[in-house]
Write a structure and sequence with these properties.
- The protein is elongated and about 50 Å long.
- It contains 1 helix and 12 strands.
- By secondary structure, the chain is mostly beta strands.
Length: about 160
C-alpha cells in the first residue's frame, strides 16, 4: 500500500510540473523560440490610430501581433499590411480572411522562418476577420511540449 501511494504522489508531482511549464500568461520575444517571460502591459502599434469613441474603430495601415483582438477601419481602396513575427520553433500559420470584403494583395516582404506576412485591399463595404495561429510552446525533439495554440485575430470594418 505504501509503495502505491509513494508512486502516485511522485506521478502527480511530475504531472504538475509538466503542466506548469505550459500554463499561465506568457509572452514570446518573437525571436528566441523557447524564451518565455511574463507579459508586460501591451504596447500600442505606432501605425494604429486609437478610436475616438467606443463606437469608432481605429484606422491602421500596418497590423502586428500586439493588435490581436482589435477592430480596425478601412475605406474602400485602402490596403492593410499584416506582419507577425514568429520563430522556426513557433511559426505563425498564413493569415486568412473570410468573405469578399478584402482581396489579397502583394505583401512585398521577405519572411524569416516562422513569420507570417500578408496584405489585403479593401474592395467593398462590410466586416471581416483576419486570423492566424501558432503553437503556444516551442516544439523540440526530446523535450516535453504542449498542444496549446496562440490565436491572433483582427476585425476589419470597411466603410
Amino acid at each position: 500500500m505504501r509503495r502505491t501511494i509513494r508512486h502516485t504522489t511522485l506521478a502527480l508531482a511530475a504531472l504538475t510540473l509538466v503542466l506548469a511549464g505550459c500554463g499561465g500568461e506568457q509572452a514570446d520575444s518573437g525571436k528566441d523560440g523557447d524564451t518565455v517571460s511574463p507579459s508586460p502591459t501591451p504596447t500600442k502599434n505606432p501605425t494604429t490610430t486609437p478610436p475616438t469613441s467606443p463606437t469608432d474603430c481605429a484606422t491602421a495601415s500596418t497590423i502586428g501581433a500586439a493588435d490581436s483582438g482589435r477592430t480596425v477601419c478601412l475605406a474602400v481602396g485602402d490596403t492593410v499590411r499584416i506582419s507577425l513575427d514568429g520563430t522556426s520553433k513557433r511559426p505563425w500559420k498564413p493569415v486568412t480572411s473570410s468573405g469578399s470584403v478584402l482581396e489579397a494583395a502583394n505583401s512585398g516582404v521577405v519572411l524569416l522562418p516562422g513569420d507570417a506576412s500578408a496584405a489585403y485591399k479593401a474592395v467593398s463595404t462590410g466586416k471581416t476577420r483576419l486570423e492566424s495561429t501558432r503553437p503556444l510552446c516551442a516544439t523540440q525533439s526530446g523535450r516535453v511540449s504542449c498542444l496549446g495554440i496562440q490565436e491572433w485575430w483582427v476585425t476589419v470594418v470597411v466603410k
